[in-house]
Design goal:
Length: 498
């Protein structure tokens, strides 16, 4: 009976909270557009912020709404953090997102008044923002707010009207304007241009001048459609990804040498069922050696999970891919019609020395990032250190998807990599260029010759059994690649023009 009464009390509390004019309704994902954002990965393209309240705590006289990038009550700090035990000295370690401090960390509701809490990229507490959603037309309220030349904000409900959005949703709307005040006296400031439009049943239609682009609930999907698992993972046999790996190290004593490497991943098979996806991959290195690899991904209740115990569709196993949820709150970018999502993190810890639980400090000055898009899935990642100055990065620089090639050409890449010819026997190819398409090969140890077109297809092949061989191809004019295999099974590739 006690459990039943407790459940009824909890339900009644949540029902009383899920009232109309709620800025961010529970169980709804709201997507807002954020244009011309500086200091972001795709700064010149559209940035979309997802606002999603995934939990609510009832304190009786007030409730607090939490967004799903928030881990509450870690060292009594409400921050964008993830628990990681770090021993006695660093008892709370975490990665914090370096993205977008425009979104609220949490919202406390008291007597239908919403107090928004914001943190910047350094986890420093910013201004609270008071919003009274039930305010009547022509009514206003004033609250303290620290700005450049003003110390208060006045919010006024200018109008209440009925309108459509997304062409299908009809709802009552309230329009709120903002006025900066300095000790009660109106002052001119860009913040005065801010407008808030609140709908009765679907939260903000415009939040801090960010227009609403999409809504998703269990029963409704309108406007912007966020990617799901299959949008990120749709490669087919025959598709090719070309990776570039870089180590960039400053010329400090003891630093490792900088280098650049390339890899070609050819999808040879795909296994895809309701909860698991596996790509079979033939990976080719610039010395023309190959290996079979693969990648395994798991769906989990419409969330996008990459399990840490499996290999990745990337040249380097990277621990940061463990249990990545791409549906968590972080910005989407739209670039040339492709949806991107970049997760950038710095490692910090909460300093519990001196009794202040909410001071965040750098641990190793370590950062990492992972970028995904709806064209390739994972397409760029990397990490770096402040103590050891080298930076490592991997990114896709070329591809062939559904027969359409773009970006870097694999054959052009490998002819420019010096390691292809290390310890290989000498060869001589002449004339080059050859207008006739015929040439002579001189080599003491060559045993097999292939000619490939610029897209990597073999268009001619021939056994070699003497040190000087005339090659008659009759191929049309163009750029080709001659791949020579030697008796020791080493290979080299050279360009030739017919």
């Amino acid at each position: 009976m006690k459990k039943l009464l407790l459940a009824l009390l909890l339900c009644s509390s949540l029902l009383s909270f899920s009232q109309n004019w709620n800025p961010f309704p529970l169980g709804q994902k709201s997507y807002f557009m954020h244009n011309n954002v500086t200091n972001y990965y795709f700064s010149s393209d559209t940035l979309i912020n997802e606002f999603c309240v995934d939990s609510l705590r009832d304190y009786g006289s007030s409730q607090t709404m939490y967004f799903n990038f928030t881990t509450p009550n870690v060292g009594n700090c409400y921050s964008t953090i993830v628990n990681t035990p770090m021993g006695a000295l660093y008892s709370q370690g975490f990665y914090h997102s370096m993205h977008d401090n425009e979104r609220p960390d949490s919202i406390t509701v008291t007597n239908n008044e919403y107090t928004f809490y914001f943190y910047d990229n350094y986890l420093t507490f910013q201004n609270t923002f008071l919003f009274k959603s039930l305010t009547h037309k022509d009514s206003s309220w004033v609250f303290s707010y620290s700005g450049n030349g003003f110390n208060q904000l006045k919010i006024t409900c200018d109008s209440i009207y009925f309108d459509n959005f997304f062409g299908t949703i009809s709802d009552s709307l309230k329009l709120f304007s903002v006025q900066a005040l300095n000790s009660g006296i109106p002052v001119s400031d860009v913040i005065n241009q801010t407008k808030y439009i609140l709908s009765k049943n679907y939260g903000f239609k415009s939040f801090k001048n960010f227009p609403l682009l999409g809504i998703k609930t269990n029963t409704l999907q309108e406007g912007f459609l966020a990617p799901v698992f299959d949008d990120y993972h749709h490669l087919n046999p025959g598709d090719i990804l070309i990776w570039e790996e870089k180590c960039e190290a400053p010329p400090f004593p003891g630093s490792p040498p900088s280098y650049t490497k390339y890899y070609k991943d050819s999808i040879v098979n795909v296994y895809n069922n309701y909860d698991t996806l596996r790509y079979g991959i033939l990976r080719t290195f610039t010395d023309l050696s190959t290996t079979n690899t693969g990648t395994l991904r798991y769906r989990n209740n419409d969330e996008i999970i990459f399990n840490s115990g499996t290999s990745t569709l990337a040249p380097s196993p990277y621990n940061a891919f463990g249990d990545v949820d791409l549906n968590e709150v972080s910005p989407y970018y739209i670039k040339n019609g492709v949806i991107h999502k970049t997760k950038m993190n710095e490692f910090k810890y909460l300093n519990f020395q001196g009794g202040n639980n909410c001071v965040s400090e750098y641990m190793w000055d370590y950062y990492s990032y992972e970028s995904y898009n709806t064209k390739y899935g994972l397409f760029e990642y990397g990490h770096g250190f402040g103590v050891t100055p080298e930076d490592y990065s991997w990114k896709i620089i070329g591809s062939t998807i559904n027969g359409i090639s773009e970006g870097a050409n694999w054959m052009m890449l490998i002819t420019n990599v010096k390691e292809n010819t290390i310890n290989n026997p000498t060869i001589s190819i002449y004339p080059n260029p050859s207008p006739s398409g015929n040439f002579t090969l001189e080599s003491e140890q060559a045993k097999w010759l292939e000619i490939m077109s610029i897209d990597g297809k073999t268009v001619f092949s021939q056994n070699i059994n003497q040190s000087k061989t005339a090659i008659n191809t009759n191929l049309p004019q163009g750029l080709y690649f001659v791949k020579i295999t030697f008796e020791n099974n080493k290979q080299t590739v050279q360009k030739i023009v017919f």
